[in-house]
Specification:
The chain has 114 residues and is mainly β. Helices cover 4% and strands 48% of the residues. It contains one helix and ten strands; from the N terminus they run βββαβββββββ. The strands form two sheets. A six-stranded mixed sheet has the order 2-10-9-4-5-6. Strands 1-3-8-7 form a four-stranded antiparallel sheet.
């Protein structure tokens, strides 16, 4: 079974940066379009952005220009570089394939203090 492991979260001040990683146990990250998502308590998981297998990226309006998704196929890893962080970016961040999602990982907590 494919395992996704997110890491890199932490506590930062407004305006700070974090780089999240999503490591897969197989080549699923290189074979598929991958998405990053986030969830806050009491709310549904929210789509944040995606990267296609060819490298095309798309972001929701609220993070566009601040977040960047990249991938390292040799490492079966997808990254989310987050700059100019805001308190509303706080949440648990997950990655998964866009089509036919596999079991969700544990996510990584991002907390942005004001």
């Amino acid at each position: 079974q494919v395992q996704l492991v997110e890491s890199g979260g932490g506590l930062v001040q407004t305006g700070g940066s974090l780089r999240l990683s999503c490591a897969a146990s197989t080549s699923i990250t290189s074979d598929n379009d991958m998405g990053w998502y986030r969830q806050t308590p009491g709310k549904k998981r929210e789509f944040v952005g995606r990267i296609s297998s060819s490298g095309f990226t798309y972001y929701i309006q609220s993070v566009r220009g601040r977040f960047t998704i990249s991938r390292d196929d040799a490492k079966n890893t997808v990254y989310l570089q987050m700059n100019s962080l805001k308190p509303e970016d706080t949440g648990v961040y997950y990655c998964n394939t866009l089509a036919n999602p596999v079991a969700w990982g544990q996510g990584t907590q991002v907390t942005v203090s004001s």
